[in-house]
Amino acid sequence: MKNILKKSYLSISSELGVYSNLYKDIYFDKKHGIKETQHNFIKANNLASRFKNSNKFIISELGFGTGLSFLMTLKLWKETKKPNAKLIYISFESAPLTKIELNNVYKKVCGVKILFNQLIKKLPILYQSTHRIFFDSENVELILIYDDFNSLKNFKFKADAWFLDGFAPKKNKSAWNSKLFEQIYLSTKFKGTFSTFTSAGHVRRGLSNSGFSVSKVVGFGNKKESLIGIKKPPSNKINKVSNSKEYIGPVAIIGSGISGASLAYSLRKRNIECFVVDKSSKYASGASGNKLALQMPKLTLDNSPYGLLSLEAFTYSRNLAKNLNSIPPSDGLIVLPSRERDQVKYLKLLQNNWPLDLISNKVDNAEFLENINYVYMKSSGILDNKKFIKNLIKGVKFVANFDVKKVINTKDKLKLLIDDKGNSLKAKTVIWANGYEMKNLSNNVPINSISGQVTYLKENKAYNNFKLNFSYGHHFSQAFGGYHQIGSSFNRNEDKNYKEIDQINNLNSIPEFLKKIFKDFKSESKYRVSIRASTKDRMPFFCSLETVINKNIKNEYLLGGMGSWGFVYAPLYAEFLIKSLLNEPLVINSNIERLLGVNRLL
């Protein structure tokens, strides 16, 4: 995996305005940027009227740039949207601006300061991936695809409107070619529109040849003309397909670990009624109940689907944990390659242009790491498990001590959940997210049970000045809640009993340079044993229940197989499952889409 993003080389001057030295062109009119954006994109696509009549609207854009088009769209959406309507804004950008550059830009722009402040807090580290940002109160999802424009061919969605804004055709030829125009056409709904500031002849002809009906309209300011277009439906009549499925609530989520909590969060932010059911008296009493978890990506040298998905899932889950105030103060993560091939791998990754916050080979003020082979992941680190799950599940009803034994279909097309005591609950949709116990539904559910024992070592004063965490096959955490967490054992069974050998192995796994900091630690340790649910390729899945049991069972689904990576993968997989139930586009690179479903495991 290489980070192919370009530097923006932004400059701001009274002569040129907000200017890209990379493309030798302006981002927007230096005097009337907001009016220019309203004219070229907001009004040209008739968004005010369309927003008022839409339950779900998808905009795609070539060139996020300063984000001004998005902010103006968000402003209009807030003013005109229908209750519970959803806006998905997909933007491709290969040379994103840094937060410092954006702050400098918006010192010069008036009218969207409050919205900009909301955006700047949510923007990700600049590396090549798909980044998902939510504005929950407005039901808006911003999907930033940091990649070149040709990557559009790897994504499946249909936009209602396109903003074609990749600098002037003479300045940035990558945004204006026939292959890209064809992909834009394929990624547009019938009656979907586009607008662009340019009126260049080859752009007009290219978009027309791809299938759009193209028109010239009055341009903005000194620009005499610009282009708009519409994708006309075929002349033969076609059956109209609904854009959304029936309302899926109330949704019963079985299991209150990280998978169940992530589902609850994805539903709650869409104002979909749901409740969480668990056989225990407290949430997160299973494998998700450790004091902490590590969040880090599994980077690969090639563009492996596993590496791409790991990076995207890490980005999503880490940002979500940060937004939910669930990350303790930390100095990041040290990865210690245990094999020679891992050392070679990380050495090459360090040369692949990733930002230093993601991966580097230097950490300040850590003399004890001298002469140690390591890589430093500043943005990775620990997570407060219970606080994260509590914040994910906040506002959602929790039904404790309810051990679901069967689900029955009722005459009113609802599901009746019945527990071991004969109590019942009603729901329209059921999602099983109960870890390894999901195997009880059918022998075909592709889950393996893995027993894991973590060790808790009493906080050592000699380590108080450091908030570093370590991954080396096992993990060793910074002090948290009075203890360091070490783990974890890996046993292919469902044994929850304490094992002295696992405790010894965990403690012996601690790297020698860390052992030198500690004294007499073996007499000060505690433990916790839980059962993880893994799969044969150690990647999660989601699917309908009928897919694995070959019976006609509607409105029941599975989310599982998180293994020891649930706090990285579960939030994104849960989001994708809910999107699929609501017929929202996943907007995921097609190269990694097969890793979402269950068919690869059957």
Account of the protein in words:
This protein is of the alpha/beta class and 602 residues long. The protein folds into 3 domains: 10-230, Rossmann fold (3-Layer(aba) Sandwich); 251-286 and 388-445 and 537-601, FAD/NAD(P)-binding domain (3-Layer(bba) Sandwich), CATH 3.50.50.60; 300-383 and 448-534, D-Amino Acid Oxidase, subunit A, domain 2 (D-Amino Acid Oxidase, Chain A, domain 2). The protein is built from 15 helices and 29 strands. The strands form 6 sheets. It has an 8-stranded mixed β-sheet, sandwiched between helices. The protein has a 7-stranded mixed β-sheet with strand order 16-15-24-25-26-23-27, covered by helices on one side. The protein is globular, with a radius of gyration of 26 Å. The model is unreliable at 238-244 (pLDDT under 50).
How would the global form be characterised? globular
CATH architectural designation of the largest domain: 3-Layer(aba) Sandwich
Cα distance spanning the termini: 29 Å
CATH topology value of the largest domain: Rossmann fold
Low-confidence stretches: 238-244
Counting helices, strands and paired strands, the structural category is: alpha/beta
Number of domains: 3
CATH class category label of the largest domain: Alpha Beta
Query: How many E strands?
Result: 29
| CATH homologous superfamily classification of the largest domain | Vaccinia Virus protein VP39
Break the fold down into its secondary structure elements and pairings:
Layout: E1 10-13, E2 17-20, E3 25-26, H1 33-43, H2 47-52, E4 56-62, H3 68-80, E5 86-93, H4 99-105, H5 113-122, E6 129-135, E7 140-146, E8 159-164, H6 178-186, E9 188-196, H7 201-210, E10 213-218, E11 225-230, E12 251-254, H8 258-268, E13 274-277, E14 292-295, H9 305-323, E15 333-335, H10 340-349, E16 375-377, E17 381-384, H11 385-393, E18 397-399, E19 404-409, E20 415-419, E21 424-427, E22 429-432, E23 448-458, E24 469-472, E25 474-476, E26 483-487, H12 500-508, H13 512-515, E27 525-534, E28 541-544, H14 545-549, E29 556-560, H15 566-581
Parallel strand pairs: 4-5, 4-8, 5-7, 8-9, 12-13, 12-22, 13-18, 15-24, 22-29
Antiparallel strand pairs: 1-2, 2-3, 6-7, 9-11, 10-11, 14-17, 15-16, 19-20, 20-21, 23-26, 23-27, 24-25, 25-26, 28-29
Helix pairs in contact: 1-3, 6-7, 8-11, 8-15, 9-15
